[in-house]
Structure formats: structure tokens, C-alpha cells
Input
Amino acid sequence: MPSQIALGLSLDTDVNLKNYFVSRDNEAAYSHLQAWLAADATSEPTLYLHGVSGVGKSHLLQGACQSADAEGKRTAYFPGLEIRSYEAASVLEALENIDLVCLDDVEALIGDSAWEEALFHWLNRSRASGAKILLAADSAPRSLDLNLEDLRSRLGWGLVFKLHPLDDEGLEAMIQLRARERGLSLDDELARYIIRRAARGPQALTDLLERLDTASLEAQRQLTQPFVKRVMGW
Output
């Protein structure tokens, strides 16, 4: 088993808080995250976000790190899926002097007694030191299948927000926003056409739009239904 890991993993430079598409259902969580990042850590040391895959948890965590980095703060981003094979205590001991730690995929670490124990003690130390901890998982603390029951209260020390998936209207608005950011024109009818046929989810639609953008540039064509149909093979 690996015993050491570099402090934090690299961030996606295309991701930030400003380009997270905020639906009506997620406005409260997004607004609170921004206020929490700007506030004194001692008032509320942790913030926990949860939701199904595709709601933008990783986007918000990486965006939070980017925002804190820009203010000269020390940050670290860790996806649970990538660090669970490492020695838990070694990973978490390195975070004592970090201003903001974003721990993603918390559920990937649950069920491992060593990780649960290390998380429990790390959260206690972080609360005492004034560090901020931004957590994300697929479900709320109360629903995690924990071996260490005391960890549940630590994970939910601060506010807990559920992030909701975008409905069709939200997906259409999101893909139109992403298109405008690329200088592309995507009217309502074409946006609905894409949503009806494409794989659902913000990341899948963003990847699709990148493919269409590349094809449009190469062909020197505007995005139209026949062109999108040909490129996507629909």
C-alpha cells in the first residue's frame, strides 16, 4: 500500500465558481458556499455537499480551491476515490496548516476503519486549528454506512446541503450558456433537440458541446439541426 501522497491533486483550470451553472434548486447551496468561503473559519469550520453523480459537486469543490488560491490561501483538493489506497493517517497529517481542504467522494472512504478513524481525528484537529473543510459525497452524513458512528456528527458539524440535478429546462439553459461562452449560437429549438437525444448530465453535455465546437470550426459551419445530426450520428 502506498504510504505517501503529494499534498493535494491538480485542479481542472477550466473549472471555477463563476462558470458553475446555478439552477433555482441549488441557489441556496451556491450562495452559502460563497459566503462560507469569505467568512471566518471559526464560525463554521465545515460545509458538506451531497447529491447524485452529475450535480456538480466536484466542480464546486475545485472551484472553491481555485477561489481560495487566488486569495493567496493554502488549499488542497483530494478525491476519495484516488486517495483511498493510501495510508489514511499519512494523508491527513499533512493537512494541519492548510487553510482550505476540499475532500471529494467521501463515500469512497467509508467502510474502511482506518480511514474513518483518521477522518474523525482530522476533523477534530481541524476544528481546533481553524481550518476550513469542504466535503462532498453522494449522500448526507445521516445516510452513510459508517463503522464509526461518532464520525457522523463530525461530518455534519456545519451546514449540509443537497445539490439537485438539472431538469430539462435547466439543462437547456446550461448548454446555451456554455455555447455563448464559446461564441456559439444555440437557439431554444436546437438546445431542446440536443437535450432530447444526448446523454443527460452537465459534464456529458459540455463534452458534446466541445465536440460540436471543434466540428463547427473545422467545417466553418454554424450549428444547425442537420449539422448537429450529422456530427453526432443521430
Observations:
- Residues 9 and 197 are 35 Å apart (CA to CA).
- Confidence is low (pLDDT under 50) at residues 1-5.
- The first strand starts at residue 46 and ends at 50.
- Residues 17-162 form a domain with the Rossmann fold fold (CATH 3.40.50.300).
